[in-house]
Specification:
363 residues, two-stranded antiparallel sheet, globular
């Protein structure tokens, strides 16, 4: 494992939309803003290795976004990107989300999930019981939760060292994922997946294979206490079954929008929320849905380029602020037990400050 040079981000700006107010303002009319803001340093680490299910070595790279002079030990937010092609550069993993979350006092660990070569990919498909190469095009989703478990093990090793002792709070960990990374989030929280019958939304990937409950695979990791799943999968999508979502435990925030995917796909994403069981604790499951033509897939990764072509720069920044406020209130409530954050979540979240463009549900 090798540590790469440090980069420092300074002058990070808190939620920039015009009607943003401090958290002690009326929760129903303003966006949630965390109490503190910090400069962020970024350290990249290479060569976090482990043996995969086939007995082959898999190597991960991570970027750690550390808030400078923030209270320690700090809670941790792991981040996983989308995309079946994989990544090796961890500073390209949800960088806007990583900087924004870290600037409020969380240590963010951004994980680059690399792709397999063709031979090991087919071997994994065979191992999972899917020998048809066409049917196996989505099995990149297998890697992500296993990678996260290895990174969590690595963090447990790091806190034993002098440089990280007392810095990380391993009892307060959340996972934020986008698209394929959201599927990783849901698996870590307990949702089983059926790789044998996995299809993209719309069943557009060759012959449809019937899903059997017996073929479901679990990869829960109890060290993850809360999940944020943006542009998530819904039932009968990428191997998730309708029965998968009722097995998710712990706090959940799901985020999607009216242009997040193909026709009908946004509604399918919200079905995952509908299928969550009611939480034993008060109001720990939340859904933000943005109704705007610019609420495209990449908006939920906090990238604005595609959104701006449709809705313009100012509107897209405003919508991203709704996502930032929702995520930071959720994290502050679930990991830090901040009462103001809980009040904002209970009182409708971003609904009023967005003038209804961001709808909010809880259960």
């Amino acid at each position: 494992m090798r540590c790469l040079p440090i980069i420092v981000f300074v002058g990070l700006v808190l939620c920039g939309c015009a009607d943003t107010a401090p958290v002690d303002g009326p929760a129903t009319t303003s966006l949630y803003v965390p109490a503190s803001s910090f400069e962020v340093e970024v350290l990249s680490f290479e060569g976090i290795d482990y043996m995969d299910v086939l007995g082959l070595e898999r190597s991960l790279n991570v970027a750690i976004y550390r808030p400078v002079d923030a209270p320690t030990p700090a809670p941790i937010v792991l981040m996983s990107h989308g995309g079946a092609s994989g990544k090796t550069n961890p500073t390209q993993v949800l960088p806007e989300w990583a900087k924004r979350v870290a600037s409020t006092g969380y240590v963010v660990v951004a994980i680059a999930h690399p792709k397999r070569d063709a031979d090991s990919y087919q071997a994994l498909c065979d191992h999972l019981g899917v020998s048809d190469e066409i049917q196996c095009a989505l099995k990149i989703n297998w890697e992500r939760p296993h990678d996260v478990t290895r990174v969590l093990d690595w963090l447990e090793e790091q806190v034993q060292s002098e440089s990280w002792s007392g810095v990380l709070d391993l009892t307060r960990i959340a996972h934020l994922g986008h698209s394929s990374g959201a599927g990783c989030s849901m698996m870590l929280a307990g949702a089983p997946r059926n790789y044998v019958c996995a299809q993209p939304y719309g069943m557009a990937q060759g012959e449809v294979v019937a899903c059997a409950e017996a073929d479901r695979v679990e990869k829960r990791d109890a060290r993850v206490k809360a999940i944020l799943a943006f542009s998530n999968q819904g039932p009968e999508q990428d191997g998730f079954m309708a029965s998968s979502f009722g097995q998710i435990d712990g706090p959940v925030l799901i985020g999607t929008g009216s242009a997040d995917g193909d026709e009908g796909e946004p509604d399918n994403r919200t079905k995952a929320f509908e299928l969550l069981k009611a939480s034993d604790a008060e109001e720990e499951r939340f859904l933000i849905f943005i109704d705007d033509p610019g609420a495209v897939h990449t908006l939920f990764s906090a990238e604005l380029g595609a959104c701006e072509k449709i809705s313009g720069e100012a509107r897209c920044k405003e919508m991203r602020d709704w996502l930032y406020a929702s995520a930071l209130a959720f994290l502050d409530y679930e990991l830090n037990q901040i009462p103001q954050a809980g009040a904002w979540l209970r009182e409708g979240g971003p609904t009023t400050p967005s003038h209804g463009a961001a709808s909010w549900a809880k259960k």
